[in-house]
Structures
1.
Amino acid sequence: MPVWSELLGHLKGRECHALEVGVFEGRSSVWLLENILTHPASTLTVVDTFVGGAEHAATDLTDLEARFRANTAAHAAKLVVRKGRSEAMLRELPLGRYDFVSIDGSHEAADVLSDAVLSWPLVKPGWLVCFDDYEWWIDAAPERSPKLAIDAFLATMRGRCEVVRKGWQAWVKKVV
Ligand SMILES: C[S@@+](CC[C@H](N)C(=O)[O-])C[C@H]1O[C@@H](n2cnc3c(N)ncnc32)[C@H](O)[C@@H]1O
């Protein structure tokens, strides 16, 4: 949260629009709504299947969507919820609308690459994308984790983006 405050804090109180791919119970969503998306016209669009990912295989998530809705209920007027797989949902969102996109859905490299490619045109030039779990892994096979996809995307987009921060999360500014 200190990094999110540092990089997004200047958006607080201004009209802005954020997109989250992968919200789970809504912890990051609530933080954004309470700390950044405070202007009455600001919005948060979220994309989630609400069935969890490979890392949740042993967890009972039958009421995940209900938990997300309850946790974010106080901000329902600012929320746009698109339930489904990101590869389908992201294609239906408006181009060039978002000041900030968080990519924290499926952690399979193929899905992260798809989320990056489909989200990029949705971001306003000069604004930010955060790839979560850059260093996370669950399996030694690189295609099972985000890093392979994030590195491939950043190499491909060299000159079109600027890496602002790279650690557990990779923060990228869209230049053009
Ligand atoms: C790591 S959790 C997100 C955590 C959240 N960003 C936070 O910080 O509180 C990943 C979420 O992505 C969702 N997800 C996994 N694969 C997805 C896909 N292909 N499309 C959309 N959502 C997906 C899961 O249902 C889960 O809620």
2.
Amino acid sequence: MLKNKITLLKLFGFNVRIDSSWIIILFLVIWSLAEGFFPARFTELDEQTYWMMAIAGAMGLFASIIIHEFSHAFIARKYGLKIQNITLFVFGGVAEMKDEPQNPKVEFLMAIAGPIASLLLSVLFSTLHTVGDATGLPIPIIGVLGYLGTINMLLAIFNMLPAFPTDGGRILRSFLWWKKKDIRWATQMASRISLFFAVSIIFIGFVNMIASNVIGGLWWILIGSFLFSAANASYHSLLIKQSFSGKSVRHFMNPSPVTVPYGITLKELVDTYLSHYPHKMYPVTKEDSIVGMITIADIKAVPQEGRTQYTAGGVMHPKNTNNSVSIDTAVNDALVKMNATGASRLLVTENSKAVGIITLKDLLEFIALKMELED
Ligand SMILES: [Zn+2]
């Protein structure tokens, strides 16, 4: 999963976020517009104007992608699917759903909404472009309008590629799902077709590069790699969601983890515990209840010579909402928390008392076992 996400704005109750890689892409888009696209079409303008057009074009592209994603999110919300975040990636975004759509029809409607929005935007900008041309608007403005008409058409086409989890891939999956009534099979098939597409696109990229179209080739390779990892990840995430559906933390926690007392020094902790129980995290107890957790990383942060002075209680992380979940939390929600905080171990609480721990490792082992049994 991607970690470096920045929240840009809040709109209609959705957080619009960008993946930090998007910033690099933004510069790449502006640069290729200013140095390639616009100068090739309008030879009479000066350097500064090309850059202004490029920035305006990139902003328009950015707004178009947000409108595309919102159209998905609105349909999703209409059918009761929770969407909190809209994250913008390279060629579009992802409206992050907590659950899978309940039936193929909802999936189809949700998926088709985005390309339809892009198509309408394309028609709108192309019309403005034609009108602007006829009424004699300044050339830079006409140029940007024309670009936005084209790019929205490309976005509509790109998103309709049958490469899960793009919109086209979701539409494909909704058909397969509708035919066989089995979402897992449909996802697996859609993912396989997507992987084939992704590899073909990467191949086209290499062919282009060999034919000395380096920049064009790089774009193909970038798109192909993005599709490849996305298709892989979405099948796995469905498997995980399904495996833990309806199950709570209670079923998977370790109710009697090795704990360390609050007052123990770090040196004693290393000597007595680490050599016997090689865990990465120990709950810390005070008067028989768990009050926090200490990790190997916390111990390592204290230099050797300081370890006789510091106690486990002094360097531990006190129990808080980020490092603990209640015992009745759905496993999928616990996984969301692990993903959001980067912690692979959480304390489990019952009536605000810590009663155990849950680890990502145990959950993954369960998945691995389950997949082995089913195959
Ligand atoms: Zn879309």
